[in-house]
Amino acid sequence: MFLEVLMSFPLVRSVSARGLRVISLAFAIFAIAVSTAAVASAQGSGSQVQNGLSTLQRMDVMRSKLEAMRRSLDSAHRRTECKRHGR
Fold it and tell me: Could you state, in order of their start, the residue ranges of all structural domains in the chain?
């Protein structure tokens, strides 16, 4: 049915059936890619809204976690150095 409708147009009549399949396949792949990109974009922006934090707030949280980890590692390093040197 779809091919019959397409074949009614003069421009399409000059294209072979194989060419129509290739064009249809390319259009389908393009449509899937566009819809996938739209879904991914919507999910990406929704995650920020869901947790309620702005980018700056998330960076501050990550910075404080990294500082706490650095202090902990520095303390552990100092303890191992003291044990190694017998202090």
Answer: 1-52, 56-87
The per-residue pLDDT for range 9-61, each reduced to its tens digit, is 665 566 676 777 888 888 888 888 888 888 877 766 555 555 677 889 989 99
Instruction: Judge whether 84 and 76 are in contact, CB under 8 Å.
Output: no
Report the candidate in 26, 23, 44 with the shortest Cα–Cα distance to residue 34: 26
pLDDT at residue 60, rounded to an integer: 92
Nearest in space to 3 (alpha carbons), one of 22, 23, 25, 20? 20
What distance in Å separates the CA atoms of residue 17 and residue 33, rounded to the nearest whole number? 24
